[in-house]
Amino acid sequence: MTDALHIASLLVHCRPELMDAVKQNMMLLPGAELHQESAAGKVVVVLEAEHESRILDTISHIQQLPGVLNAALIYHELLSPEGESE
């Protein structure tokens, strides 16, 4: 790895009846992993990217998906090329 790695986690809140469609759309995004979810329409998403701008663009994209009510950044970490937190 030549660049630093940005890791971010989000809590995405969507309309429960559209959660399957929202999850399908988010799984298509590069660097996105879906983790825990609730029947209330909440999904934990982890993003990885080499540039912070890619994280911000992906969050913006998620916020615009049909059925998404909110996407909130919960955690962000920058790992150096040596694997250490900065």
UniProtKB/TrEMBL annotation:
GO molecular function terms listed in the Swiss-Prot or TrEMBL record: signal sequence binding
Provide this UniProt record's keywords sorted from A to Z: Chaperone, Cytoplasm
Subcellular localization, per the record? Cytoplasm
Recorded superkingdom: Bacteria
Q: Which Gene3D superfamilies match?
A: 3.30.70.920
Pfam families according to UniProt = NapD
Q: Which GO terms describe its biological process?
A: negative regulation of protein transport
Which parts form a coiled-coil structure per UniProt?
none
Instruction: List cellular component terms (GO).
Output: cytoplasm
InterPro entries attached to this UniProt entry: Chaperone_NapD_NO3_reduct
**PANTHER family membership:** CHAPERONE NAPD
Instruction: Quote the subunit structure annotation.
Output: Interacts with the cytoplasmic NapA precursor.
Chain's role? Chaperone for NapA, the catalytic subunit of the periplasmic nitrate reductase. It binds directly and specifically to the twin-arginine signal peptide of NapA, preventing premature interaction with the Tat translocase and premature export.
The record's similarity note reads: Belongs to the NapD family.
**Official protein name in the record:** Chaperone NapD
To which species is this protein native? Stutzerimonas xanthomarina DSM 18231
**According to the entry, what is the taxonomic lineage of the organism?**
Bacteria, Pseudomonadati, Pseudomonadota, Gammaproteobacteria, Pseudomonadales
